[in-house]
Amino acid sequence: MLRVKDGDDGAFAQIVQRFQNRLVGVFTNMFADSSLAEDLAQEVFLRVYRAKQGYQPTAKLSTWIFQIAHNLASNSRRSKGRKKEVQFQQSLSGSQPVAFGEERLPENSSLMPTRQFEKSELQDRVQQAMSLLNERQRMAVLLHRFEGMSYADIGEAMDLSPQAVKSLLSRARENLREALESFVQ
Amino acid sequence: MDKLSRLTPEDRENLIAYLDGELDEQATRHMESMLVESSVARNDVEALSRTYDLLDELPRPNVPNDFVERTVATAKMEHVSVPISKRPWFRKTTQILTLCGWTTLLVASAAVGSLVSSRYFQSQDDVLIEKLPVIENLDVYYEVDNLEFLNRLSAETSLLNEMAREANDE
């Protein structure tokens, strides 16, 4: 990032390369919309680029980037606040969202191997369970599970104390357990 | 601890933190002894772990190949597309400098004008002061009437002496 600050656009490209899939992964599972996820991820990088002159290496780069991502996700959520809340799930192959609760049956389901169908169904159920979490719980879970971030780092990214993160993740995982327990027995 | 007793909310919270490796040494030892003693705790740990592992089923999409290129280009374009002359701070500074320039020019013009007018254009008072000796002797000048005659008279010494004697005699 210090190289980006010095005007090295190649270093900026490396940062984008390093975080692009991670950010899109988090946003996709936050909003279940891959197109929106890409736009938000790009906006995160643009904010990073804009803020390069004022960058101070006081925190981990990843924590700083996910802090921007969390703020952006919060703003995005607020801007959509008045819209009717409908939970969507993302189809695996396309960018069009599909409403939760609908059985996602591919047109050629008769040709699909049973195992693949089961995997797809399981993914639907996991997404459905995630949609039961509030957005703060979901963000904390994604940062913890996908990014392997510590409670302290999650707290820094989400402006919470480590104790608050501990409680947040505890409630989230209890909720996930309730929703998914039947799949692990 | 009773091996079948339910866990307290705090224990459940700590159990999850234990799974995440976020407890200090003392709390970790406490959790480990609880797991040894309580089958409920062991079942909870297993269920929590297995359900959490299911999150690996969530989609992890890959971005399009040109994402990096597009993002870098957008960032650079955004940076370049606003030339320095169009940036708010530059425009504000320009406005302030222009205002200062015009104010300075106005003050300088006023000062120069005042200097020039005082140097080359005399006021009525100045004229009166300059001509004061003439004004003070204006009556004498009227009586003289003809300056040339006065000059010729002053050249006639004998006549002036005679006039002086007569004046003395009277």
UniProtKB/TrEMBL annotation, chain A:
One GO term (biological process): DNA-templated transcription initiation
Segments forming domain RNA polymerase sigma-70 region: 15-82
Source taxon at top rank: Bacteria
Signal sequence segment: none
One Pfam family this sequence matches: Sigma70_r4_2
GO molecular function: DNA binding; sigma factor activity
Name of this protein: RNA polymerase sigma factor
Automatic annotation (TrEMBL), chain B:
Superkingdom, taxonomy of origin: Bacteria
Protein name: Zinc-finger domain-containing protein
Organism: Thalassoglobus neptunius
